[in-house]
Specification:
By secondary structure, the protein is an alpha+beta fold. It has 5 helices and 4 strands, in the order αααββββαα.
Length: 133
């Protein structure tokens, strides 16, 4: 694991909250492949997310659109009050911010701002104030 963590530190700004070997290996493998061959085109990524949501035996929360279904490991960055915040999607579909896990992007946005927000709008995934960056 020490070698994996050394490699992780070369490719990511901080360590994940999930520290099991399988998770670390899979995220590193994806990141190294992404750097070597480039990221998936946005349209292909969207098609894969939609196909996964359609055929998955695990049903997403009611009302959650494909726009807010993000791949585990995705990091959303938002500046607020002259500070940068990074929220990472966990393998469980939750959202981790500075070691604290939230059930929704809206809960993470509320934690950051202290006020009620639509999480996807706050992080720029939908039109709104957060989408202007």
């Amino acid at each position: 694991m020490a070698e994996l963590w050394a490699l992780w530190d070369q490719h990511f700004p901080r360590r994940p909250s999930h520290r099991n070997r399988h998770y670390v290996e899979s995220r590193l493998a994806y990141r190294i492949q992404e750097q070597a061959y480039g990221a998936l085109p946005t349209n292909l990524r969207k098609m894969l997310v939609e196909a996964g949501a359609k055929h998955s035996k695990i049903k997403s929360a009611a009302g959650r659109s494909t726009q807010t279904l993000l791949m585990p490991g995705t990091t959303l960055i938002r500046e607020w009050d002259e500070r940068q915040y990074r929220v990472t999607v966990t393998p469980d579909g939750l959202y981790e911010l500075n070691g604290q896990v939230f059930k929704s992007l809206s809960a993470a946005a509320r934690h950051i701002t202290g006020t009620q927000w639509n999480g996807p709008k706050f992080f720029g995934l939908r039109g709104g104030k957060g989408a202007t960056q």
